[in-house]
Amino acid sequence: MSDVVIHCEGLSKCYRIGEREPYRALRDTLTDSLYAPLRHLRSLLGASSNTVQPNEDSTFWALRDVSFEIRRGEVLGIIGPNGAGKSTLLKILSRITKPTTGRARIRGRVGSLLEVGTGFHPELTGRENIYLNGAVLGMRKAEIERKFDEIVAFAEVERFIDTPVKRYSSGMYVRLAFAVAAHLEPEILLVDEVLAVGDAAFQKKCLGKMGAVAKEGRTILFVSHNMTAVQSLCGRAVWLDGGKVVQQGDAEIIVTEYLQTAAESCLEQVWPDRDTAPGNESVRVRSARVVGLDRAPVETIDTRTPFALEFAYWNLKAGARLNLSVSLYNQEGNCVFTTTTVNEPHWHGKEFPAGLYRSICQVPGGLLNDGSYRAMLLVVQDLGRILYHHEDIVVFEVQDSTEGRGKWYGKWTGVVRPELEWATEWIQPAAEGERFGSPDGGGASPLGNPGAGRPGQCG
Q: What is the 3-state secondary structure (H, E, C) of the chain?
């Protein structure tokens, strides 16, 4: 028996721009079934078809001729920029949507975690949703009951397990959703970039659980922008861009080449047309820029250069209380810091009239280490509801500075590189003939011996 559990061959998915799939009633399905043999006969006889070929300008290929194989027990990372087709691929493998061309053969029970609370019914309690998800995965009641306590403990929602999940926070949602998907023993686990919702401790626990699941012989497809997680968890990686496979192979090699390619700067993005700008019915982004403190464009930034992140956006619903949150990531996908407008003195906590706004965040010099950085923007309402998020809204490079290095010319380690204040003072001159220590640890100290009996320990 072959160890290949997922075989994708020539997968392509095409969407019609601006069109919605019409509603189909049961009678439409029955009618199509009755006429299917006749249509097949007409095609064999070479009869002309009235099918209109889609115009290239009205179509969008989310995937184009994607092929790969995954073996049992393998952890495969799917990487690539936004819009590369990663989520579309997982939706096809989850049987949520059908491919336009090509096919995917899957052997085994599939558990999917494609977004926060996938498959949850908001009116049902956490307990009821665990049983519902287990039934959807094909689990028997006895199997669900055997894993129930472990799921609840992992999700850390014991107190709220009998509360309807519509009252859960986004963090509680994702904890329970991941716990259900990981503990109900699917043979294949599909995980999209949902772990970004959880805090650092929960992300670490999830990565540990996925590693344990892989060691049990189950297969994982892991989509993430966290390159460190991909390198540590995955043996192989597939790099998608524009719906096509750019490269696939060893995760370490693929991630390294992807980061080198993705390091190109994007210091400014502008969307002047409000109706087509990125966003939704609540808010739309007009521009995002990396500028100097005088708001002039910048071409280069080094480790000592102060700069600002500037965002212009339309608030489309009067009365909303908005906050911006910006998370800055380095080229390995690690979050360097997150900053919000909660300390903004003029508009925080106030109702925003409809209109165009600009928010500016100043980043001091002497903070970031050299390397490539990308910013993710969140627009949040009432400090809790995410209205819109935009990954990689600006990308910039921080160059090394020769100032402040002393005689050290190697790579400065660390995620950040703050210029912290230091002070050194001469406490006491040495007396004539006095020694401050010897290779064997002897000698007197002018400060006495406050750590006597506890060498090498902090008191």
A: CCCEEEEEEEEEEEEECCCCCCCCCHHHHHHHHHHHHHHHHHHHCCCCCCCCCCCHHHEEEEEEEEEEEEECCCEEEEECCCCCCHHHHHHHHCCCCCCCEEEEEECCCEEEECCCCCCCCCCCEHHHHHHHHHHHCCCCHHHHHHHHHHHHHHHCCHHHCCCEHHHCCHHHHHHHHHHHHHHCCCCEEEECCCHHHCCHHHHHHHHHHHHHHHHCCCEEEEECCCHHHHHHHCCEEEEEECCEEEEEEEHHHHHHHHHHHHCCCECEEECCCCCCCCECCCEEEEEEEEECCCCCECCCEECCCCEEEEEEEEECCCCECEEEEEEEEECCCCEEEEEEHHHCCCCCCCCECCEEEEEEEEECCCCECCEEEEEEEEEEECCCEEEEEEEEEEEEEEECCCCCCCCCCCCCCCCECCCCCCCCCCCCCCCCCCCCCCCCCCCCCCCCCCCCCCCCCCC
Mean pLDDT, consecutive 10-residue segments, the chain of 459 residues? 84 77 60 68 54 58 92 90 84 88 88 66 90 80 90 89 87 80 79 62 74 80 80 88 91 83 77 92 95 88 91 94 92 87 90 94 91 91 87 87 58 78 82 57 45 47
